[in-house]
Design a protein that fits this description.
heterotrimer, A mainly alpha (about 300), B alpha+beta (about 550), C mainly alpha (about 325), A: about 300 residues, mainly alpha, MetI-like fold, 14 helices, elongated, B: about 550 residues, alpha+beta, 7-stranded mixed β-sheet, 4-stranded mixed β-sheet, 18 helices, about 35% helix, about 20% strand, globular
């Protein structure tokens, strides 16, 4: 890979070529492609939920047909209120996935910014941020999120806040070390010598190069957050009823584990498949962005 | 490759050895020495009765136990009051009170005590009764059952005289609630009373081991005043997960399970054969409407809307969701089978609001709501309740939400922890709510909900200029109800009271929760008591 | 080296201070109060307030925080539980040991299973072993611990009646919960070890060694393993978070009297002394484990060792 580092045009050119190159490498990994396809199918299904089955079916109760096993009419059976489990799974997936994505992105942004600031400015700022982070991280995240959701009450926003708080720490260290590496590179020195302001350096040089790592971690964190959110629901601190949501469906299905085990099976499978497909994509991205092959 | 494997295997072996070492140490090291009672007897060699608790015992002091599973142990097996409770035998029964004489004006109760010993060997004297009541009166938790007591005196060792501030026929609940403890032992223990096993009660069992982490063991008190219990050793197993408890029962590790998880009732019925019983518990759920709520221009102040809401509720579905259909739809404040003074729905003296969708829709139409309004959805705010998101109240809320949607009324559901929600309910910061009440066998308990001076469950604020009923009349009826102990008269008064409450369309009984009990073949549980089982009545099958 | 360890241990102090502050801050915005839960719904508000006042509950949280620190540091007194009135330390210590035991099993299991599989899969990349284990690992890593726990309860305790369903009486009682919490990190370990090994194998010095004619096993063991294991060691430490989160949940399912379930139960009673002391204990454990991990890391990595040797440890 030829390195062409004179001026910003060259950087842009390098970027376009890089995208193509990354995509090529990504395609090479069978697992990653399978993951991507799977994820597109899942996400597509969730987005098109309204077309596949109306939201009404996910909330309308039918006590005559409660806890029914899977059948033609109810592909995934019905829950304790007689609601169609398949409809709930589809519509619920949207909530689950959107919480996970939003939480991931907000934690990525907050964490990365902190990490970039710490790494770039170094010295006292760096020390303060990292030491505070160490203290913060030594609180087990599950207890902390529980306390926060308990304090604020269960709701979409509060859950988002709690999840963001729990996961932003992942990014700080990562981005910081990236920034430390990159800040020492010659071209940054050169840019500084050329009179470029700090902000500009961060934005045009450091972030684009750190973004690879951020992306990989973001994809992997989405999966973790989906699982984490379902655990919170299990403990009673997830999304409040009655809106369908995978973690909540699992929590509701728990008491029927023996009488209607399919109610636990399908949301579990959904969570597992979604998380697994995202992990596959993340791995593929990691390989594709492998720095060893870059230079 | 073999060397590779060899190295891996040797790593594994080393680690496995470390693990075994660790567990070996761990097995010897007991988490904490369980505190044993001084002078506790040697293992009797009798069969141990195994029961289940969902969490560890909070305290061995009856004044400090706040949840039902703890009270089932401490309030019934270890301590006793002047009265006891036995639903199977009709409610309050004499216990430590051999007989009680009431004065003409209903203010003086003369109690003759039975001849009983404390578990520490001391004779129970009237002074202990006075001590116990005074101690309870200092605890504001018991304010609502002791506030009517003016003074208590010990006339002699076996007689106690209660002087009330005003006649209060519901005093039986007080006599049940306040337990008699050994003055000597409690005073000696001071602040640490309740944190260790003790022998300060008069009940048929004393706590022999109390380890916060894992164990609770009871032993029979040989000198119990009614004669020693049949079953000598009791051990409570802490099983927090319902599914695990059912498994334990079916594996024979539990001999008796009260409050069996209803979702598994069918399986339990099969595995317990004939040894099961499903009874109506004294635990009821209500829907409350805050007629003062400002939401949507105080739409809930409109009585027609409230009535429509009530008629739209399908209690059968609520029952199915909350109790797997094992409970009973409720129309009364307390089950009339258990409480003689509770107005029965069978008598037709008050509005029942039986499920009637058409009527609900008609009421809305007559009130002026157009088809357009209904199609758009009439917003009544939020249906608030507490407990687990998957708990019975949350389920009831979801059913009701769906019911209301059918007549064009829409509401949100909000469920959170009790600590967060109940203060809001008591300050009327809600639109609709689901709340529960229980455990009391005197209709006077309704005072908590309807009397403005009550600090209890005043969920609907009746004392207000905009009140949908004559609250002064209600409060006077409450006072009249306790002024007499004539059952027929009390029933009449309470019927009038309840009819007024129902007419205002502010509180709606929803469902009576059931109590499922299962036991093993080797046990004969005697007469079944839904809430507070008496181990004293149990015996092993020959 | 020792200076490094000492400095890290010294950092425990600000950690404890910080953790306590965070928890007190969160508790101060949590609804409910011990007075109301102890005195019940019918007690007059004035009495509830008096009860809270006597407990020192109503003080501004910063003052509570300082009081607590002073008591803890100078008197080694962790206070009395608002809920059971027992000394806090007496309540949490035995339960803490139980959770540590469980977490320890979790770490051992997840490492013993994950790492060797990962190494072998990397060495035999693209083989049937590799494909199968990688596939299994992907799915296992995506299972929430509580789902696994419930499944095990159902299968092994109910259907097969092989293992006990609650409590900690014997070693067998720990098997299911340990499996439930260690499978996701084991899968993670496996995948991470594999990719770390693969990366190490591709390094130049490996090619050089091969070119020099060194036997395959020396190549693997001497050159790759050490470098590959470095990030794995860190990963194992990071997995501790996952293990503790799993422990909190499976403690509920298997009725294990551990510290996770204790804290969870007491949150609704606002039993602050127990919650705080418990969280502090867990945080200290966390920090010490991370320290051990970092020391191991420094030990294995000759570059870092050299650096500290130079700095006169």
């Amino acid at each position: 890979m030829k390195n062409n580092e004179n001026g910003s045009d060259a950087i842009l050119y390098k970027k376009e070529n890089q995208f193509k190159e990354i995509w090529r490498r990504f395609r090479k990994s069978k697992g990653a492609v399978i993951g991507l396809i799977l994820f597109i199918v899942i996400a597509g299904g969730l987005l098109a939920a309204d077309l596949i089955v109306p939201y009404e079916k996910a909330v309308s109760q039918n006590f005559g047909a409660r806890l029914a096993p899977p059948s033609m009419e109810y592909p995934f059976g019905t829950d304790g209120y007689g609601r169609d489990a398949f409809a709930r799974l589809l519509h619920g997936g949207r909530t689950s996935l959107s919480i996970a994505l939003l939480a991931t992105f907000s934690s990525a942004i907050i964490g990365s910014s902190l990490g970039a600031i710490a790494g770039f400015f170094g010295g006292k700022v760096d020390n303060l941020i990292m030491r505070s982070l160490d203290i913060f991280m030594s609180v087990p995240d599950i207890l902390f999120t529980m306390a926060v959701v308990y304090a604020l009450g269960p709701s979409f926003t509060n859950l988002l806040i709690a999840l963001t708080l729990a996961y932003f720490t992942n990014y700080v260290r990562l981005v910081r070390s990236q920034v430390l590496n990159l800040a020492e590179q010659d071209y940054v020195e050169a840019a500084r010598a050329g009179g470029a302001k700090n902000a500009r350096i961060i934005i045009s040089h450091i972030i684009p190069n750190a973004i690879g790592v951020i992306i990989v971690n973001t994809t992997l964190n989405v999966a973790k957050i989906i699982l984490y959110e379902s655990t919170l629901s299990f403990l009673g601190l997830g999304m409040p009823p009655p809106h369908p949501e995978w973690g909540l469906m699992l929590a509701e299905a728990r008491e029927f584990m023996r009488t209607a085990p399919w109610l636990m099976f399908f949301p579990s499978a959904a969570i597992v498949f979604t998380a697994a497909s995202i992990n596959l994509i993340g791995d593929g991205m990691r390989d594709a962005l492998d720095p060893h092959l870059k230079s | 490759m073999e060397e590779n494997m060899k190295k891996t295997i040797s790593y594994l072996l080393i680690l496995v050895m470390l693990v075994t070492l660790f567990t070996g140490c761990g097995a010897q090291k007991d988490p904490a020495e369980p505190a044993a009672t001084p002078g506790s007897s040697e293992p009797t060699g009798d069969k141990i009765l195994h029961l289940r608790k969902t969490s560890s015992l909070q305290s061995t002091d009856w004044e400090a136990t706040t949840n039902t599973t703890d009270m089932q142990v401490v309030w019934v097996q270890v301590f006793e009051g002047l009265y006891t409770i036995d639903e199977a035998k009709g409610g309050y029964q004499n216990c430590l009170a051999e007989k009680i004489d009431v004065s003409e004006d209903g203010k003086i109760y003369t109690v003759t005590l039975v001849d009983a010993k404390f578990q520490n060997g001391d004779q129970m004297k009237a002074s202990d009764v006075v001590f116990s009541y005074n101690r309870a009166m200092q605890n504001s938790r018991f304010n609502y059952v002791t506030s009517m007591i003016d003074k208590i005196e010990a006339k002699d060792d076996k007689t106690v005289v209660f002087t009330l501030k005003y006649p209060y026929s519901a005093i039986s609940h007080t006599f049940w609630s306040i337990k008699i403890s050994s003055e000597r032992e409690v005073t000696e223990a001071g602040d640490s009373f309740g944190t260790t096993p003790h022998t300060a009660g008069t009940g048929p069992y004393y706590i022999s081991e109390y380890d916060v982490a894992s164990g609770l063991k009871l032993k029979a008190f040989e000198d119990y005043w009614r004669g020693p219990a049949n079953i000598k050793d009791v051990e409570y197993r802490i099983i927090s997960e319902d599914a695990a408890a059912v498994i334990a029962f079916e594996n024979g590790e539990l001999d008796y399970m009260s409050d069996a998880p209803l979702a598994e009732w069918d399986s339990l019925k099969v595995s317990s054969g004939e040894n099961n019983s499903l009874t109506k518990g004294n635990n009821i759920r209500f829907l409350g409407i805050n007629y003062l709520s400002p939401t949507n221009n105080n739409i809930l102040g409109n009585k027609a809307v409230r009535e429509a809401i009530f008629y739209a509720i399908n209690r059968d579905n609520v029952n199915i969701a909350a109790t797997e259909g094992l409970g009973d739809p409720a129309y009364e404040y307390m089950p009339h089978e258990y409480v003689a003074t509770s107005p029965s729905y069978l008598d037709g003296n008050f509005e029942l609001y039986e499920y009637n969708l058409e009527k609900a829709k008609q009421i809305l139409k007559d009130a002026g709501f157009t088809d357009a309004d209904i199609a758009a959805g009439i917003d009544v705010g939020t249906l608030t309740t507490y407990g687990a998101g998957t708990g019975e109240k949350a389920k009831q809320a979801q059913v009701i939400q769906a019911n209301l949607a059918e007549i064009g009324i829409k509401c949100e559901v909000y469920v959170a922890e009790a600590a967060q929600i109940t203060p809001r309910l008591y300050s009327q910061d809600y639109d609709l709510c689901i709340f529960g009440d229980s455990g009391n066998y005197d209709f006077n308990n309704i005072r908590q909900q309807v009397h403005s001076e009550s600090t209890g469950m005043y969920v609907v604020k009746y004392a207000d200029p905009n009140s949908p009923l004559d609250y002064k009349k209600i409060e006077s009826l409450v006072d009249q109800g306790v002024a007499t102990d004539d059952v027929a008269k009390r029933l009449e008064i309470y019927t009038e009271l309840w009819a007024m409450v129902m007419d205002s369309a502010t509180i709606l009984p929803l469902v009576h929760l059931p109590v499922g009990i299962v036991w093993s073949d080797e046990l004969d549980p005697g007469g079944l008591c839904p809430t507070y089982y008496h181990i004293y009545n149990f015996k092993w099958v020959e | 080296m020792y200076r490094y360890v000492f400095k890290r241990l010294l950092f425990l102090i600000p950690t404890i201070l910080g953790v306590t502050l965070i928890i007190y801050a969160v508790m101060s915005i949590t609804p409910g109060d011990p007075g109301r839960s102890m005195l019940g719904t019918s007690a007059p508000q004035a009495d509830v307030d008096a009860y809270n006042e006597a407990l020192g509950y109503n003080l501004p949280f910063f003052q509570k925080y300082l009081n607590y620190l002073i008591k803890m540091i100078f008197h080694q007194d962790f206070g009395i539980s608002y809920f059971t009135k027992l000394p806090v330390f007496q309540e949490i210590w035995p339960r803490f040991l139980v959770t540590i035991k469980l977490a320890f099993f979790g770490i051992i299991l997840s490492t013993l299973v994950g790492v060797p599989f990962g190494i072998y899969a990397a060495v035999k990349q693209y083989s049937a072993f590799d494909t199968i284990t990688s596939l299994v690992a992907f799915f296992m890593a995506a299972f929430p611990a509580f789902v696994l726990g419930l499944m095990f309860l159902y299968i092994f305790a109910l259907k097969l009646n092989l293992l006990p369903s609650y409590g900690i009486a014997t070693f067998a009682h720990y098997i299911m919960p340990a499996m439930a919490i260690s499978i996701p990190p084991a899968a993670q370990n496996m995948r991470f070890t594999k990719s770390s090994m693969l990366e190490a194998i591709r390094q130049d010095y490996v090619r050089t060694a091969r070119a020099k004619g060194a036997p395959e096993r020396t190549v693997i063991w001497k050159h790759t393993l050490r470098n590959a294991l470095l990030p794995v060691v860190t990963q194992i430490g990071l997995n501790l978070g996952m293990l503790i989160a799993g422990a909190v949940v499976v403690e509920r399912i298997f009725s294990i009297p551990g510290i996770g379930s204790l804290i969870v139960d007491r949150i609704s009673y606002k039993d602050e002394p127990v919650i705080i002391a418990g969280t502090i204990l867990i945080s200290i454990t966390f920090t010490i484990v991370m320290l051990i991990v970092d020391i191991l890391y420094a030990y294995i990595d000759p570059r870092i060792r050299a650096k500290y040797a130079k700095l006169k440890g």
